[in-house]
Known about the structure:
The chain is α+β, with helices and mostly antiparallel strands and 363 residues long. Helix content is 32%, strand content 23%. It has a domain at 83-325: Glutamine Phosphoribosylpyrophosphate, subunit 1, domain 1.
Amino acid sequence: MKPFCLVVALSVVAGACSPSSTESTPVAAASSPAAAPQSPRWGLVIHAGAGNFTLADLGERREPMRDALTAALMAGHEVLKRGGSSLDAVQAAIVILEDSPYFNAGKGAVFNHDGKNELDSSIMDGATKRAGAVAGLRHIKNPVRLARLVMEKSPHVMMVGEGAEAFAKEHGVTFVPESYFYTERSWQALQRALEEEKKAAQKASGTAQLQVARAGAYFGTVGAVALDQKGNLAAATSTGGMTNKRFGRVGDSPIIGAGTYANNESCGISSTGHGEYFIRYSVAHDICARVQYKSDSVQGAADAVVQGELKTAGGEGGIIGMDHAGTVAISFNTTGMSRGYVGEDGKPVVMFTTEDAGPIGTR
Ligand code: ASP
């Protein structure tokens, strides 16, 4: 399967990737590639999960998914357009995706091995390096809102399980019954994973379960990165984790530096994929560190990690990112990653796989 990366300049076209695996297109008419960036171009980039899927695999879900991704982009764009913060923009985009049944976050969260949903999320402010994260939530409608509250209303960065939900109660967060997270698709995905796991049981080693959970998976985690008019970056990620995960398992999405990272001196990143690898390779922070300390482009850094060491290690997935000049980077080593971006022109672009990586603005 061909790896894929994309660089879009909301300010300047970088054109960092090799032609076999990339696309390089300006969202806004900008200065020539050689010119220095002028004032940062604000904008938003989102993902809704990576996996080895084709457009055909998405079937009739594709258009409602496109609608939800477009709505998420436009919600974030509205915030940015009126001068709102990148934190508000990424939160607005993610709440829409969490409320949709089509993604593995909020409403559409996948089931763990015990048939329960455990939700994780994180958010980071690139201006202050403050961050908030939550994991193992069972009753919170919009985990990203709670992550934001942990960042802003607690002295902590990360809260989990019952403690996080008790904190949520104190802050008037919306609770839902566990049944709210039931979707037939996620339930059937668990049944298939359990079946495969049973079949594989004789040969099973300690790692067999997550491999089963991963097989053919459409990950579906959601994430967003934005740059606002003041030049501040923010990133956020929200997930139900991986189908058939063990009770209590936490992936990369709520881990600052793995699933989410934002730093005005470098970039903002949101990851999606096989979380254990993203944690071990500190993917989001590694990309930003390369930008900050090696002066790599955000796309170059993302490719070095996602198409390089992560892929070599067997870590499937991808990232979306944006640097402090508004340059968007997208890189994934699977066949698909649902994704989209919008710049100052307010024209949303949504794509799903390597197949529809055509010119910007085409469907
Ligand atoms: N990274 C998430 C996790 O491992 C899953 C995903 O991105 O789909 O929990």
